[in-house]
Amino acid sequence: MKKIMLAAMFSIAFLLGYGFNQLTRPANTGPRVTGLGGIFFKAKDPAVLKAWYSKNLGIRINEYGANFEWHQGMDSTKKGFTVWAPFKETTKYFQPSEKQFMINYRVEGLNQLLANMKTAGILPTDSVQKTSYGNFVHLMDPEGNKIELWEPNDVEYAKIGTVTTK
């Protein structure tokens, strides 16, 4: 049963990522969202919740949560990842959003995308954070939801996704 649930979750994550990518793919290339990079949500006790998902649904957990690995549709030799991560209820990471969740969008051309958004009057809530596994910046959507844009370096991110906790 656990293997069936795990296979179903991986299939759903893949299909959601692929479907989202197909639905949002513009006729031209350039700066754009390419898929969901992660789903972040608040939990009373993230460690207990992660352990529950690991034990009961077979999700392999690392220090951040879980990584669902998939292959990019246009180039199946390239890996991609969707992260699942519970945060403490008291986290300030979602501020200024009052919501209990934050969606991380994978993007191409982050700098140009930000320039286009600035022209439209949409400003980030912080500056671009550069890490070995990609660049991040946060925005507020029109309904007050904080969103995260991530231009990934999937080669480096793959190294993080293989580390598991007990």
TrEMBL record:
Leader sequence residues: 1-21
Stretches assigned to the VOC domain: 35-152
InterPro entries, sorted: Glyas_Bleomycin-R_OHBP_Dase, VOC_core
Keywords per UniProt: Signal
Protein name (record): VOC family protein
The organism of origin for this protein: Mucilaginibacter angelicae
